[in-house]
Specification:
The protein has two helices and no strands. The radius of gyration is 18 Å and the shape is rod-shaped. The two termini are 16 Å apart. The mean pLDDT is 91. Keywords: Membrane, Transmembrane, Transmembrane helix.
Length: 82
């Protein structure tokens, strides 16, 4: 496989997508674990954990999408310069 071939570019893009999906999944799992007590019992502490879990979920999704987009742009510009 050549460095600048279509197959190489597809593998790099696929690996970027895998990493971003893993990051989103990790944030989803941690967020849902933190949100779980509010589904069982309603009190101030569980409500606080719910909002922390929701924040973790949103931040992880935004972070994963931001990093994936930045890496994708970097990879595309480096392949266009070759």
């Amino acid at each position: 496989m050549d460095i600048n071939s279509k197959e190489h570019q597809q593998l790099i893009v696929r690996s970027i997508l895998k990493i971003s999906i893993k990051t989103m999944t990790l944030g989803l799992v941690i967020g849902l674990i933190l949100m779980a007590p509010s589904f069982v019992r309603e009190n101030a502490f569980s409500q606080g954990l719910f909002w922390v879990g929701f924040s973790v979920l949103v931040v992880s999704i935004v972070y994963a999408l931001g990093v994936a987009f930045k890496k994708y742009r970097m990879v595309r510009s480096s392949f266009n310069n070759i």
